Amino acid sequence: MSNFDCKNKFKPDTEGTYIKSFKEYQSLHKKSIEDPQAFWYEKAHEFLNWDKSFTKVSSGNLKYGNVKYFEDGYLSVYQNCVLRHKEANPNGIALIYEADNPEEARSVTWLELSQQVQLYARVLKQMGVKKGDVVTIYMSTSPEAIYAMFACSYIGAVHSVIFGGFSSDAIKARVLDSKSEVIFTQNFTKRRGRTIPMKTTINKAIEGIDFVRKVLVYGRVKNIKEEINMKPNRDILLESLLEEFQEGGKYENVYANLQPMSMNAEDPLFLLYTSGSTGKPKALIHTTGGYLLNAALTHKTVFDIRKGDRFGCVADIGWITGHTYIVYAPMLNGVSTVLFESTPDYPSITRYWEVIDKWGLTQFYTSPTAVRFVMSCGTDPLKDFSLKSLRVIGSVGEPIGVEAWNWYFKNVGKSRCYLVDTYWMTESGAIMISAIPGATTLKRGSATLPLFGISPQLLVKNGGSKSIELSMQKKQRKFSEIAENDQSGILTIKGHWPSITRTILGNHKRYLETYLSPYPGYFLTGDSAYRDMDGYYFIKGRIDDVINVCAHRFGTSELESTLTLHPKAVEVAVVGMPHKIKGEAIFVFCVLKDKHTEEMVIKNELKSLLQTSISKIASPEHIVIVDSLPKTRSGKIMRRILKKIVRKNYEVATYGDLSTLLNPDSVDSIVSNVKKIL
Ligand code: WTA
C-alpha cells in the first residue's frame, strides 16, 4: 500500500482545527476507550444543551443489546439544532437549497427555519400526532423535508424518511411495518428536468392501508395540471393547512405556545430502513442523546468544522448519510448545510463545481460512485472553477480505491484539501473510521484510523495460532482477535458507542442475531478489512450477501425473492459484480419455466420488476438465462462460483472443490453464456 503524507500540504489552521495534532488524537482516543464515562460526559456537555442533565453516562451491554446513553437526561432537538443558532445568528444561512433546476436555488435563514419548523410542528399536533408516533416522510431533499423532520422531534414523534426514488411497493412495506398513520409527501419532484410523480406513488403504496389517516402534500412543482388524486378527509394540501396557522388563520393562536418537546435521551429520534443479507429491509432505530452527540462530534472532528462554514454533503436525505451529515450534524454545529436535489450532470457535468464556487462551500462530501462518474468525464469540466473555498473533501459508501482517490484529491482537492475517506454504516449512526484533518497522515485508499469510542477489531473464525484465544461460551462460534498488524479479517467493533442503533423495530431478536450474537462482545459490521503495518484500516467490502450499488445497499435475498415473483422465473440467483462507476452492479442468473420463452421480453420484465418493486438503482446490469444453477446436494446455490464467473474468472479448475455440486455440468454452460456478454 502506498503511503502518502498530505499533512504538510494541508497546513491546517491549528487555531481553528478541532483536533490539533496526531498526539492529541491518540490521547483522546485512548481516553474514549479506557475511560468512556469521563470522555462522553465531557463531550455531551460540550456539544449539547441539556434541559435536564444526566447522572449516568451509559449502561447495558451487547449481550442483551440494551445499551443506553445518558438515560436520565432530557434535551430538546429543536433547541440544539435550531433555536440556539436562530438566537445567535437569525439572519445567517441555515439551509442552501440547490433545487434540481439551479435557477430555483434558494437559501433559508435560521429565523425562517425556526418559523417553518414551528408551523409544521403545529400542523402535526393538529393532525393528532403524539409522542412516539411514526411519521413517514417521502419527499425530495428540500427545505420542506427538513421542516418535516424537525417538526417530528418538536412534538416527540419519530420520523421514517423513505428515499424519494423508492417504488410504491417498497413504500408500502415500510408503512405497513412502521404502522405510520401520517405521511408527508409532495405532489411531484424534479429530476434532471423531468417531472416525477410522488403523490400518486404514495396513493398506490397505501391503497387499502386503512390506518393511514393523513397525507400532507407539499406542492413542490407549481402550476401543474396533472392529477394527483386527493382522497377526501385523508389528503390535505400542506400550504393551505399551513396558512391556517399563520396570522389571521383559524389556528393562529391555538398552538402559538406549543413548546418543543424535551426528549429523554433514549427516546427514539428516527427509524431508517436498510437492507440486510436476509429477509425484508429492517427498520433500525436511533435514539436522541447518543446519536446527536456523536453526529456533532464526528462532524466537527472529521470535517474540521469552523464557525461560518458551508457544508456540502450531496447525498439524499433518504439515507443515513443524509440524516446525519446533511441534517443533524451541521444543524447541531450551527453551520450552513446544502440540500442537493439534483445529479452531478444536470443541467451539465459542471454542476457540483458550480455549487461549490457559487456558495463558497468549505467541505464537500460525496460517494466514490459519484467521484468515478465525474472522473469518467475528464478534468475539462473543472477548468473554469477555482474550488478555492474547500478545505476538506470526503468520501463515503464504499471503498474509494486508489485511482478515484488520486483523481479526487488532485482535481477537486487541488492537492491541498484534506481527503477523508469515512467508513461507517446506517447501524453506526455516525462515522467510525476516518482521517482527521491536520492530525492524520493520509494513505491512499485507506479510511485510516478509528474515531472516538470506536475500537475496531479484526476477527478470524476458529482461532489463529498467533492470536489470543478468547474465552468462549459453549456452542458459540470459535473465533479470535487478530492482534497483529498487516492482517485481514472480519471487521467488528468491540463494545458500544453512543450512536449505535439500539434495535430493529419490532424484532429485537433479529437485531441480536444480525449484529451482536455472532461474536459476543463485538458488533459485527458485515465488512472485512485489512490492517496495515501502521494499524491503518483498508475496508475490503461486504462479507455477507449485501450488494453495494452506487453506495446503496441491497440484500441478495431481497432481490431474489422479488425476481421469483415473476411467473416464468423458476429460480434466480443474484450476485454483485465489480463495476467501474457503480462500485458493484447486480448480475442476475435466471432459470425459466419454459425454455421457449422470448428471452428479451422476460429480461425486460425482470428488470422492470426490480425497478418498480424496489428502486431504479436496483436495476440489474446483466441478466443471463441459464438452464440450471450450480447447487450443492442440500440444494444451496453456490454463489461463490457465480461470483468468480462474473469476475471473468472462467477457469473452472480454480473454482475449488466442486464435488459437492449436484449438477457440475451447469458450470460450463453458465461460463459460456456469461463469456458471450462480458
Ligand atoms: C460500505 C453508509 C468502504 C460498507 C454510510 C458498509 C464503505 C456499508 C465506506 C454501509 C468506506 C461505507 N469505505 N466501504 N468509506 N463507507 N461503506 O448503511 O460496506 O448505506 O457496511 O451506510 O457501506 O452502508 P450504509
From TrEMBL:
Q: What is its EC number?
A: 6.2.1.1
The record's annotation in PROSITE patterns points to: AMP_BINDING
Residue ranges annotated as transmembrane are: none
Task: State the source organism's domain of life.
Answer: Eukaryota
| Domain spans labelled AMP-dependent synthetase/ligase | 86-459
Q: Which UniProt keywords apply?
A: ATP-binding, Ligase, Nucleotide-binding
What residue stretches are annotated with the AMP-binding enzyme C-terminal domain? Answer: 558-636
Keyword presence, Ligase: yes
Give start-end of the signal peptide. Answer: none
Reactions listed under catalytic activity: acetate + ATP + CoA = acetyl-CoA + AMP + diphosphate
Enzyme class, spelled out: ligase
- The residues covered by the Acetyl-coenzyme A synthetase N-terminal domain are 25-81
Q: Which family does it belong to?
A: Belongs to the ATP-dependent AMP-binding enzyme family.
Q: What is this protein called?
A: Acetyl-coenzyme A synthetase
